[in-house]
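Entry: LAQU0S05e05314g1_1
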Amino acid sequence: MSSIKNAWIALGTSLFVLLSLGYTYLVIAAPERSLPLIHTQGSIAANEQQRWIFVGDIHGMFKEFTELMAEVKAEDDNTHVVLLGDFTSKGPQSRAVVDYIREHQNTTHCILGNHEVNVMFAYLNPAGLEHGLSNGRTHWKPLDFSSESYIPPRGQVNLMHKRVVRELGEERVEWIAAHCPAELTIEFGPQTLIAVHAGLDPDLSPGDVPRVKDITTMKYMLPKDHSKTSKFKFKHSRRWYKLWDKQHAPKDTTVLYGHDSSNGLTLRKRTKGLDSSCVSGGQLSALEVVYRDGKYQEFLHQVECQKMI
């Protein structure tokens, strides 16, 4: 039973006792919401016989998502699917997408995008979001990740995320928090595949934990100081993935990500950007990665999307 339901039961029991003792003037406050600890990182040791399918931003476009899953034959027991974040929000069927992940959780893996982070934050802070995080309020309940407590950047959380909370309901939001990390590392033969939503610093060493803000929101990074990142271009910044072309970037690692719809499909040697603007009438893209005859092979799959925004 969920924490909120338990809290209401406890509250009801307390009210019964107080009323039976003659206390009739009571101020009732809703129980405080909570979420499970959210894992910043997850890892999987893959079988070289498996197929791995990485899917760009779905944004609640369930019809197109199921078409794509049929095209890649995702029901095959040897196939694993990784959703690269922003599988909810903007589109019409966020709940259906989450239910699909839950029903196929043995072979379908989810990464947190900035919109899932915003939805969870809206769930924890149901009051005071009428004008987003820029409304002057200073006391917000943060999201507890395994590596840090996190509040999304100012202005990112809005009424749309509150509507998605209502669409999903408490149980699904809690499930996302418990089952979707912000980064997933897949050891696949001699290659390491890292799935994130937004991007990854090429200078991170094995065992280093990335900042939640970077892996869920960034598009730009300062080449001489990788601690300086932003979703928006700033002076002397470059797209983070261009820094993976440097000599010292790990050669046995491939980063797969979404988030950057303005750039569209961006398939480079060490980084694979798969957000191709499905919710805006583009395509929903998936990259299939297999290991055969001692080498990796990649196959691109796409379906056309109906424009929703």
